[in-house]
Amino acid sequence: MEQLIHYVWKHKLFPLTGLKTTDGQEVEVIDPGLHNHNAGPDFFNAKVKIGGTMWVGNVEIHDRASDWFLHRHDRDPNYNNVILHVAESIDVDVKTRQGNYPPQMRLQVPAAIREHYEELLTTDEYPACYRIIPDLSRLMVHSWMSALQTERLEHKTEAITQRVKDCGGSWEAAYFVTLARNYGFGINGDAFETWAKLIPLQDIAHHRDNLLQIEAFFLGQAGLLETASIPERYQQKAQKDSYFTQLESEYKYLAHKFGLQHMDASQWRFLRLRPQNFPHIRIAQLARLYYEQRAGLSQLLDCGTVKQVRELLKTQVTTYWETHYVFGEESAKSEKRLSSSSLNLQIINTVIPILFAYGKHKNSEKYCDRAFSFLEALKAEDNHIVRMWKEVGLQVGTAGDSQALIQLKKAYCDRKDCLRCRIGYEYLKGNPSAQL
């Protein structure tokens, strides 16, 4: 429970009077210090009055005092300036490498906090803190949701920054990869990212005015022009399908010209996937978007409103795919446009993170502010995570809210990391409605 003792010390969730060192000196905690998550003492620059004398320095915390020796702090010069050693159990005197004996103080986790913490870790209901949600102040919730929004965008920025590195420093290519990944809508996200990284944009740009060649390039690199990728019951029909044979012929030419290597088609998932989400359809939509020169970063950066982004990204399939979902099997005619809800998800998961990441890269507040304004302009997502939070009393109105709550569940609730959560803090400190 050392982590819990750290938490109690950091937030001063203990009686502030009657504190004494093991040798009877009175202790007054003025400032618990800055929590250190790296090597060295647990808290830096603490201010503690011991026996009437003010000390400024580092504080180390353990479950048992003997952990000092277990962790070899007696051999580490970084612990020479510890002004106070705090432990729940004092079972030994501690000593620094210099030979000094830091004062020690016993600090017990208050029973109510320990009880509430165990409830958070063991309760079957989800989220575990659901009892206090309705009684949280609007100011506290708004502050925490704003922080979570930013945290989620920072997390996505890390992924985008890595893609930029993977793409040789090209933000244009990284945007295309991010856009493509989110065309997988979760299920085929990894496959789409693998595919997009195999699309050499500088090469395909030479054929930008030929939609057939773009589609051949895209579908060929996806491995979907290989006969083995077509279900057996459709293979004979596909072999006689003039459009399939055209694409196949064009891709062979392009593959030879540019030395292309396509991905393994087995990476694509079809099981329990709606036909409109088949990779053939999504790739055809991307091919149309690219052909019409609406898949570039510069065009995106010119959009100042959500409406303009919608106009930029709305797309549909090419003519052949209006009557097909796979090669060799006709279907009822449909334009198969990217739906309004799918467009929203693209804006939330592609456009907004790219704007934020690019703004951070360029030190441009304009793009970062635009990212946040887009989040507030879009309606909240409707998924099981958002519905769960609504059911326990949280108000969810915008995409900013839903993104914050997705971050809350994935980064805190799923990891039982209640000690870093502000709602967990309210629960632990003894909000009246947290009492059972």
TrEMBL record:
It comes from Prevotella fusca JCM 17724. This is DUF2851 family protein. It holds the Pfam family DUF2851.
